[in-house]
């Protein structure tokens, strides 16, 4: 589910970025006056003498965005019920990190704007834009492992919940008690239908729309309706009983195809998956590819002429937003991560290092969708709104650049991916337990005076960096024999084992090293479809002889464990463990100074 979410968010980032640029170009073009004129066109519904009208921008911000928050509510409901948010130990760290990443930006902004005209905008820098963050992490690639993406997604979910509560509580306009009571009654009626297990979509659609109108009229922002309704949608893990019924229906249809059996099979297959997940599958692309880009187009248009930029450069509003997004998010999330770990309140997924965590904290300062949303609620003055939007754009760009730089520096420091549970002072063997043999994957002269053995993982980012270094080392020292042994860290890197199996299948056809190179050049694209494509390009079948290949990989793992391998990459030079830096110069010296094999 997380991988599907990543693919949708990352793919939509391009559309969102294009819509943002289009809004900026439109607002700064010779036809700039048409931008505001278009979004202020009135549109509405009429029921006899009763009319309900909003301008187009408010239909987008208050209407379409309710669907966006409804999808967030669906995601929250699923993660809390059957996803990773069930585990309190895994929730604690990202939840406290999200809280820190909201409080400190708000405090920084408020400290800069206290008593001024921008004081009400303290909520602007508190939220992270998930789509842009995941898009940037896709660019970062293998430097950002899946556990960090999962951590940031959990953080973003908590962040969204807290941001919506802030909007509902602190950015409510004049409150209409009558409309609010109507909204409460409608919500109670929806809860009653849910309790009575009455599942009629038209009833929920009509009641949901009425609830949205009542909430809007009450003065409470209707985005709260979206997330509340999404959280109410039932979600459950597929049961064996429902899956068995679906399988039986499909088998019956295969034996006797008919419209009746086709309908029955379709219904049983549909019921085996919860309505929550079916709605996510249906609505998530619309939310990511249509609703959020339209929102960006409607709200990102801001004049970027010399005068507006000069005003923004000295405006406490712009400076407060930049400080909150860049410094507040980085420090707040970092402290919010360190504290629960220090107090032993929770765990991190995988075995993340602080360089990766700091990079994730920095890119979380990309605040766009919710930041623009709060700007529209906090300020009525177009000039003040312009300064805030320029601050949002500037702060998000600086946060993205800072995050990319931290990832690059952390990556260049090298390191080892290792599963949790290894004590730092554990004594490890310093020699290769199983000598190089004919069954190993090797390239270079068989009678070489120097042999370099690598225990590697195709999804490990440090192995990916080492691959580039070893390629240069091969050019410099063609007389060295290179040997690769598998050591997939299955819990940390879920695609490492399938990649290793694909490499073994290619090896059976004499194409191991070609697949080895392809896998390391495409570390962030190791899905089944990609592996099948790589295999097809090499003229092999990726899963042929799977059991035999799995035994071969397990033999490498066993030899690695006997040799004291506990993480990747681990190197042995002429049978002796290499403990120096993973740099070209250090490895060159180690090969030059190595003791010949007996």
From TrEMBL:
It holds the Pfam family Thioredoxin_4. Belongs to the NhaA Na(+)/H(+) (TC 2.A.33) antiporter family. In the N-terminal section; belongs to the NhaA Na(+)/H(+) (TC 2.A.33) antiporter family. Na(+)/H(+) antiporter that extrudes sodium in exchange for external protons. Keywords: Antiport, Cell membrane, Ion transport, Membrane, Sodium, Sodium transport, Transmembrane, Transmembrane helix, Transport. The keyword Lipid biosynthesis does not apply. InterPro entries: Na/H_antiporter_dom_sf, NhaA, Thioredoxin-like_fold, Thioredoxin-like_sf, Thioredoxin_domain. This is Na(+)/H(+) antiporter NhaA. The chain crosses the membrane at residues 58-77, 89-112, 124-143, 150-171, 177-193, 205-237, 286-304, 316-341, 353-378, 390-411. It comes from Nonomuraea roseola.
